[in-house]
Amino acid sequence: MPIKYPSARAGLEGVTGSLPAPVEKPDAAKDRITGLDALELGGKSEKGSLGKRFWRSAWPKLLAIGIVVLVWQIVVWAEWKPVYVLPGPATVFEDLGTLIKTGDFWDGVRVTMLRAVTGFGLAVLIGTIVGAAVSRFTPLRAAIGSLITGLQTMPSIMWFPLAILLFQLSESAILFVVVIGAAPSVANGLISGIDYVPRTWLRVGQVLGMTGFAKYRHLILPASLPSFISGLKQGWAFSWRSLMAGELLVIVPGALSIGVRMQQARDLNESSLVISFIIVVLVIGILIDVLFNAADNALRKRWGLTGS
Amino acid sequence: MPIKYPSARAGLEGVTGSLPAPVEKPDAAKDRITGLDALELGGKSEKGSLGKRFWRSAWPKLLAIGIVVLVWQIVVWAEWKPVYVLPGPATVFEDLGTLIKTGDFWDGVRVTMLRAVTGFGLAVLIGTIVGAAVSRFTPLRAAIGSLITGLQTMPSIMWFPLAILLFQLSESAILFVVVIGAAPSVANGLISGIDYVPRTWLRVGQVLGMTGFAKYRHLILPASLPSFISGLKQGWAFSWRSLMAGELLVIVPGALSIGVRMQQARDLNESSLVISFIIVVLVIGILIDVLFNAADNALRKRWGLTGS
Amino acid sequence: MTTVEADPVQTGQAVVSLDSVSKQYGSGSNALLALDKVSLTVRKGEFVCLLGASGCGKSTLLSLIAGLDKISAGTLDIGGRHVSLMFQEAALFPWLSVSGNVELPMRLRGVARAERKQRAEELLDIVRLKGFGDKRPHELSGGMRQRVALARALAQNADILLMDEPFGALDAMTRDILHDELERIWREQELTVVFVTHNVREAVRLGDRVILLSSRPGRVIEDFPVTHERPRRIDSPEVAGQAAEITDRLRAEVARHAN
Amino acid sequence: MTTVEADPVQTGQAVVSLDSVSKQYGSGSNALLALDKVSLTVRKGEFVCLLGASGCGKSTLLSLIAGLDKISAGTLDIGGRHVSLMFQEAALFPWLSVSGNVELPMRLRGVARAERKQRAEELLDIVRLKGFGDKRPHELSGGMRQRVALARALAQNADILLMDEPFGALDAMTRDILHDELERIWREQELTVVFVTHNVREAVRLGDRVILLSSRPGRVIEDFPVTHERPRRIDSPEVAGQAAEITDRLRAEVARHAN
Amino acid sequence: GGDDDKGSASGEAGAIRLGYFPNITHAPALIGVKNGLFQQALGSTKLETKTFNAGPAAIEALFSGAIDATYIGPNPAINGWATSKGTALKIIAGSTSGGAGLVVRQGINSVADLKGKKIATPQLGNTQDVALRAYLKSNGLNADQQGGGDVSVLPQDNATAVQAFAQGAIDGAWVPEPNLSRMVLESKGKILVNEKDLWPNGQFVTTHLIVTQEFLKKYPATVKKLLQGHIAAVKYISTDNAGAQKAANEQLAALSGKPLKDEILASAFKNLQFTNDPIASSLYASAQHAEDVGLLKPVDLKGIYDLGPLNELLKADGQPAVSDAAAS
Ligand SMILES: Nc1ncnc2c1ncn2[C@@H]1O[C@H](COP(=O)(O)OP(=O)(O)OP(=O)(O)O)[C@@H](O)[C@H]1O
Ligand SMILES: Nc1ncnc2c1ncn2[C@@H]1O[C@H](COP(=O)(O)OP(=O)(O)OP(=O)(O)O)[C@@H](O)[C@H]1O
Ligand SMILES: [Mg+2]
Ligand SMILES: [Mg+2]
């Protein structure tokens, strides 16, 4: 197969003409090439104002949203289902607008996010410790390695009896459900990351005299970070889903958590409200993913994995 | 830090004595060393009868189970909670024994596993395609990359209205819930694997003229396999959990699926039955994890990641 | 220091032509000009050796020719020919056995199974690794891996073969053998070769021309034609003589850079 | 072919002693005897060079001494000394910058921040990479990475320094400079060095002894003491002379093996 | 809670933890909490409330000692009684009667038309499920527990059932209020069977109040005060129906973020009857039906009621006493 790289050359042939002939001062030449580079890499470079950069990453999202809303609206116009079953975008966005204008809603978001962050934090802590321990001690791995995935397949709802037994009807019961839902993912991500640390690095670590904690701190954790982050991402998804179920365990009058509101919307069969909450949950999920992605991208850049 | 490796030498110093002095025929020497190696590596080698190998991986599990059962029994004896809330192991195992002796139960397992496998298979297919597409096309990634994690955070129960809308109350509705629960994990695993394919390999692939499908077949997929497998593992957990919820959607006359039976046990507040089902679900989860681990170990062996 | 335009005496068709090619990594304060207006023409069937200090841009130049990186300015043309690049690191795929790695380029071309098995065996024999086909890359020594990478590059059947210090990890004897083999293949298949090395004698032993690059930024500073008749021997007085001459030039350049 | 017992003339304290050490990889039909009853003593402050064909077991020997692999038979003793090993591949950590990589061994020893920053700069200066401290490993050329690995190995302050083809990817001039630096550090810090190379002249330039290994299985076949006075020059007639002698011996061994 | 031993000598707890559902069939609880009727009656004993979405969860909490008393439907109570072998709980008062029935789509006009149709119930073996199965059986139709038979009975939670009915995925459902009203008003369903019509006096228990036996034994005085609050709430509903509807709906809104629509609220209140009478006969009959259709192992319900304290209070208030006898 011939190797072609038209983009590389196409962009440059035009540029060449504008390059003045031999330049003596290397600094000047450097500057010019910097300029050219910026031009050439325009589509990819990290430069440009914050607004532009934001726009560049935002337009495909907006387009995607636009298409979904359009299709949805068409289906509604086609009257495939009665509007109380499948309300149109206008209705839903109106409801959503009213919803997010209430302070109650934001109180609920606060309550839920607080639980999510606490639970997830705990899950990360526990998952990391368990994952590190399991991948370190062979008998432990044999003993509970598979149990970790086993636990993960348990529907949150099955933990309710145990949660109530252990923590009564308290916030701790919710946290318990969240942690037990998310920690296995975190542990699994770490274990699989550790298992795939290249042998050469392990040998380098051994030669550098790394043992115990230092080995984890300076070698295993950074080397398994990519897999760990993807474990965290999955763990987040699990913890959020567990939380939505777990919040039904204890209902504190006052600020209503998202989980309760969602369940109520479902119980009341208010399609428009249900869809509103789907959107709210999606948006929160996406925002969190954006955070993870930022971490991931920073990491890939440091490792030299960006660019072709 | 001094580097010590007592285990390496400790084992050998004893052995040295039994080594006859200079041997002329290299083949004979080779054989002898093979023997010594086998001795030295006894604890780790893959040799030994199937039964022995099985026992070696099984004892820590059995020990762990033993400890859990013991603690449980002690808590029950201590009468922390009445037995109808926390029944003892004997009661539960008796119930479990009765349960698994019924043909109905196995029919249910069959129905559920069939759904799980179908749903998971579909999820893998869709997740792989979506993951490959997303990591390939930058605008697509910008558009729906984050949506994937967003979807994952959606509790399965929120998909019920949509599932009913699209598929009425059919098996397809269950599959829909399972697939939408699991596919994002699979896609995410693949995406993160692809993102971390070392740059050198990508460059080698480019030089070898890999493009399009061939590139995925011969480079991207094998290189991202570790992360992909861990994505599959997570995807399995999600699909199983979604299935347990999804099975409550449709009850097909004939055999009662595990999800329905579990829900019923809970509805009837039969602690002993609930625990029995927790055990059943755990065992299924663990068995599946063992399969994944087998794949993972084979992979690590091929990649040269086993041993120190 | 002015740029020396490479002007080969041969009259074959230009296969690789670079015209004031520059390559800059990074941007802003972090920018590094790796290659500065390099002009170079390699003709069909030529064997060109590249010499230069560590970090002067030799690997960069090869990856530009192979189309792996974008050039920052200038023009580069290889006329759509097939290029094969042997990297400085072996970069074998760990999920394939040794012969799997060698067979891969043939699989991609759709060569039949039996044929590529046989060809892979031939190639492993050429690089003196007969019987290692079933091993995994991690079971090989550093020099062995490099040789597998060579076999893989040869399996590509490309028109242009770019080689980045291919024999750096080999002992003198194995290297001598591979020199002979490479020369034979180059002749038989009328390959065009661009060969990076740090061993000046090796360059004179193999090359039709030896090109010297300066450091930071990399520029072509000298183009030595090598005219001794082939087959040459690496320890022959002619080779040693010209090598000494080139070494002096290189030494002067490195000294200049150090100041 | 009988095993030649290394019997150095020096009388210093034995720092590394191997007694009929064998190393076998794999088992059963897949077994490969990499080292066969290697006996070797390295004394305090000695600079020992290892030579041998590609795949003969040089890297294996170093990793056994460093305790990275288990020996299959025999005894090996380094008296619990600190060992530092510079691998054949640079093996830098991609998540650390260049100076981060160099500082790492000092961080592990608990050296204070300011001190290790300064020491890292010194070391980078020694390997001629001043100003590259903030780069990431992937931004370096192959030879530059190797030099960073050297700086990292030196930062370990070990008693025994094992080096696996440390200068394989360097041009002659940079290598000459590093020879001088390495020799200086070795003297000043009274290091014991085991140095693997394919460059016979380099071995004679640096070593107190040059040890020749045979191929498959690896055995010690010859132990050449190098007695020319230091400082030596790599292109001096004495070095060239002894190098030629050793090369002949090596060539004979490789030829024997090829039959 | 029950562990807070302040004044246990006088039979009074420091606090009582009461469970109920944010559901219109629990109106006395909603109103009692909203209007402070419980707290008023309890005096210095602190009232802590917990809400649940389903009976099994409430029983779970009761079993684990997370709550002391709860409003609950008859079937979870029977199940709790059965699994604990009559040691965990006692029914101490009635709360709600009526408000359930079979809603079907237009075009189904008789029992015979149900043949081959899909009918949902909230869960296998719950009150409505048993009622449907018993009704089908008495009309010569059979339905097995796996969803097969002449009529396909599908356990589905109320939200899913209402949704499925709206989309035509099921042909009907035997559900409690307010789902009943919602299916009629929103999805144009029609009531084929009002469960009321199947019971003597049109009365059958929908919700009642239970308490753990331990708490009852330890703090009889507190239980009595709780009952006082309950009686006051029931009384308030009968004296000021509009005010009661408003209070109930406000409490619902506080708990779930959204009030019921007025028309549904009104319709539901009309179908429901709030009474202190636990209508014991319907509980026994329902249990008997469950046994008949094979959904309940024979269970001795003797002693499940402890109506002594309630009757004392009713007497003091000049209301007629209620009975725990099988037939009234
Ligand atoms: N990906 C990169 N990002 C930034 N700088 C780079 C990158 N690759 C190479 N460089 C820089 O470009 C210069 C030339 O590198 P190159 O790898 O081409 O050198 P080289 O001549 O091959 O050296 P060696 O003989 O040591 O392999 C070096 O200074 C290096 O630091
Ligand atoms: N992990 C391993 N598993 C199996 N065989 C191995 C392994 N490592 C090395 N070998 C084999 O041991 C022999 C010696 O390898 P070693 O790496 O020590 O050679 P070397 O002398 O360093 O060669 P080079 O000069 O090419 O680096 C080789 O034949 C190699 O195939
Ligand atoms: Mg290079
Ligand atoms: Mg080696």
TrEMBL record, chains A, B:
Taxonomic source organism: Winogradskya consettensis
PANTHER family hit by this protein: ALKANE SULFONATE ABC TRANSPORTER-RELATED, MEMBRANE SUBUNIT, TRANSPORT SYSTEM INTEGRAL MEMBRANE PROTEIN
Taxonomy, superkingdom: Bacteria
Pfam family membership, one: BPD_transp_1
Cellular localisation: Cell membrane
GO cellular component assignments: plasma membrane
Domain ABC transmembrane type-1: 109-292
Entry-linked InterPro entries: MetI-like, MetI-like_sf
Protein name: Sulfate ABC transporter permease
Topological relation to the membrane, as annotated: Multi-pass membrane protein
Gene that encodes it: ssuC_3
Transmembrane regions listed in the UniProt entry: 62-80, 113-134, 146-167, 173-197, 242-260, 272-295
Gene Ontology BP, a term: transmembrane transport
PROSITE patterns: ABC_TM1
Annotated family: Belongs to the binding-protein-dependent transport system permease family.
Keywords: Cell membrane, Membrane, Transmembrane, Transmembrane helix, Transport
TrEMBL record, chains C, D:
The organism's place on the tree of life at top rank: Bacteria
PROSITE patterns linked: ABC_TRANSPORTER_1, ABC_TRANSPORTER_2
Family annotation (InterPro entries): AAA+_ATPase, ABC_transporter-like_ATP-bd, ABC_transporter-like_CS, ABC_transporter_ATP-bind, P-loop_NTPase
Signal peptide limits: none
Entry's Gene Ontology molecular function annotations: ATP binding; ATP hydrolysis activity
Annotated ranges, domain ABC transporter: 16-240
Keyword annotations: ATP-binding, Nucleotide-binding, Transport
Gene3D superfamilies: P-loop containing nucleotide triphosphate hydrolases
SUPFAM superfamilies for the chain: P-loop containing nucleoside triphosphate hydrolases
PANTHER family, per the entry: ALIPHATIC SULFONATES IMPORT ATP-BINDING PROTEIN SSUB, TAURINE IMPORT ATP-BINDING PROTEIN-RELATED
Protein name (Swiss-Prot/TrEMBL): ABC transporter ATP-binding protein
Organism of provenance: Winogradskya consettensis
